[in-house]
C-alpha cells in the first residue's frame, strides 16, 4: 500500500516556499508559533469584517471575491514582516486600511520592541488559486 504524504510538505523547496521564515530557541518556539497563528487569524478576521461592511454598499464584483491565498511571516530581531498574498486587493487599497490593520495587529501581537511591516502582493493568476475558486 502507498504511504500518505502531506502535499505541502512534499512540495516545499521545489515548487512552493515556506509560509513562515524565522528561527527561535527551542524553549521559545511554541510562543513564535502562537504569535504566527494570532497574526494570521487577525488578518483573516479583518478581511471578513470589512468585506461584510462593504457588501452593504455597491462595490465592484471583484471585491466580493477578495480572498487571501496565503500569508508569509518573516521575523527578525526588531521587525516582523507580513506579506499578504491576495487575489483582488481592492479592500486593502482603500485609504487607511493598511494602517488600521497594523493597529489591530500591534494590539493582538502586543510586541513593544518589534516594528510591524505589512506588504500586499497581488497574485499573478488569481483564478488558478483554489482558495479563490472556492469562494
UniProtKB/TrEMBL annotation:
A molecular function GO annotation: RNA binding
The positions making up the signal sequence are: none
Subcellular location, in the record's words?
Plastid, Chloroplast
- InterPro entries linked to this entry: KH_dom-like_a/b, KH_sf_prok-type, Ribosomal_uS3, Ribosomal_uS3_bac-typ
Q: Which GO terms describe its biological process?
A: translation
In terms of PANTHER family, this protein maps to: 30S/40S RIBOSOMAL PROTEIN S3, SMALL RIBOSOMAL SUBUNIT PROTEIN US3C
Subunit structure as annotated in this protein's UniProt entry: Part of the 30S ribosomal subunit.
Question: What is the protein's name according to its record?
Answer: Ribosomal protein S3
Amino acid at each position: 500500500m502507498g504511504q500518505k504524504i502531506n502535499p505541502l510538505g512534499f512540495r516545499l523547496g521545489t515548487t512552493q516556499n515556506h509560509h513562515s521564515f524565522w528561527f527561535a530557541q527551542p524553549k521559545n518556539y511554541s510562543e513564535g508559533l502562537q504569535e504566527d497563528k494570532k497574526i494570521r487569524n487577525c488578518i483573516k478576521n479583518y478581511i471578513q469584517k470589512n468585506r461584510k461592511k462593504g457588501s452593504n454598499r455597491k462595490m465592484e464584483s471583484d471585491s466580493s471575491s477578495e480572498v487571501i491565498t496565503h500569508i508569509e511571516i518573516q521575523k527578525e530581531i526588531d521587525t516582523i514582516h507580513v506579506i499578504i498574498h491576495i487575489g483582488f486587493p481592492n479592500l486593502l487599497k482603500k485609504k487607511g486600511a493598511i494602517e488600521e490593520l497594523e493597529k489591530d495587529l500591534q494590539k493582538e501581537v502586543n510586541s513593544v520592541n518589534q516594528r510591524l511591516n505589512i506588504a500586499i502582493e497581488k497574485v499573478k493568476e488569481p483564478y488558478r488559486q483554489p482558495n479563490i475558486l472556492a469562494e
